[in-house]
Amino acid sequence: MSNTDFVLAVEDLTVSFDGFKAIDSLNFYLDRNELRVVIGPNGAGKTTLLDLICGKTRASHGSIKFRNEEMTRVPEYLRVRKGIGRKFQTPSIYENLSVFQNLEVSFPRGRGVFGALAFRRDDEVRDRVRAVADEIGLAGQLDTEAGLLSHGQKQWLEIGMLLMQEPELLMLDEPIAGMSVREREITAELLKRICVNRSMIVIEHDMAFVEQIAHKVTVMHQGKILAEGNMEQVQSDQRVIDVYLGH
Ligand code: ADP
């Protein structure tokens, strides 16, 4: 299969931990501007798949191509520079800094030729901070200390810190955990907006939220893909009902 049209092409990916295949000969393709949600029971391999794509975990076998470029053996920090951004569940904001400063410190400094330090002008950084703050709905809170933000706002700020790195692919792990109903709605709109010019993979359990945001759903089970398609297709798939939705 040609990878040309995919922002991400994962082929025959396998990772073993002490002989146990957490990801087993998996193929996964993501279109540009696609918002893909990955679902499946605990232990299915969802987190491990994202760990492999961002480079936190090294594959035992197979290949990961991002924008047609081989990533499989590229270290994690370089994958970030190439445009793969991952938000982990553990909080990473600086509570004592303002929203502005949190975004400012996330601005990439090392994108010059051969990794040389690329100095950015202050006004360029400020413009980018303002644009991102606007995108995540925190333009009115730039001077607020991050520790004083609501739970939802902190999550949006973290997404903003990722956006500062100008990723082409964002990966989020359960982005609405702990959020109020209103915050979930705002997050759904935010994620859809982000995908207008980027791609995204989201791990999520809340099926109402999945239905709201997903262009396409991948169902994982025992390190493999059990089913893939739109919400209607996966929801009516008996294998998916048996291992996941029916529980
Ligand atoms: P999910 O995110 O779908 O709940 P995970 O990707 O976290 O599943 O885990 C898939 C399987 O791989 C689980 O059985 C888990 O125990 C195992 N696993 C994940 N990471 C490691 C690791 N670093 N060492 C050993 N086993 C692991």
Q: What report would you give on this structure?
A:
This protein has 247 residues and is of the alpha/beta class. It contains 9 helices and 10 strands. The protein has helices spanning 46-54, 76-82, 99-105, 122-135, 151-163, 181-194, 207-213, 231-235, 238-245; strands at residues 6-17, 20-31, 35-39, 61-66, 69-70, 84-87, 169-173, 199-203, 216-221, 224-229. Strand 7, helix 6 and strand 8 form a beta-alpha-beta unit. Helix 3 crosses helix 4. The chain binds adenosine-5'-diphosphate. Adenosine-5'-diphosphate binds at residues 17, 22, 40, 42-48. The site of adenosine-5'-diphosphate has 10 residues, from helix 1.
Search tags:
single chain; 247 residues; alpha/beta; 4-stranded antiparallel beta sheet; 9 helices; 10 strands; globular; binds adenosine-5'-diphosphate; Urea ABC transporter ATP-binding protein UrtD
Low-confidence stretches: none
What's the count of strands?
10
Dominant shape:
globular
Report strand %. 25-35%
Q: Which class do the helix and strand fractions yield?
A: alpha/beta
Order of helices and strands: EEEHEEHEHHHEHEHEEHH
Radius of gyration: 18 Å
| Helical residue percent band | 25-40%
Quaternary organization? single chain
Major sheet description = 6 strands, mixed
Average pLDDT value?
Answer: 92
N- to C-terminal distance: 36 Å
Strand order of the largest sheet: 6-7-8-3-9-10
Task: List bound small molecules.
Answer: adenosine-5'-diphosphate
The DSSP helix count reads: 9
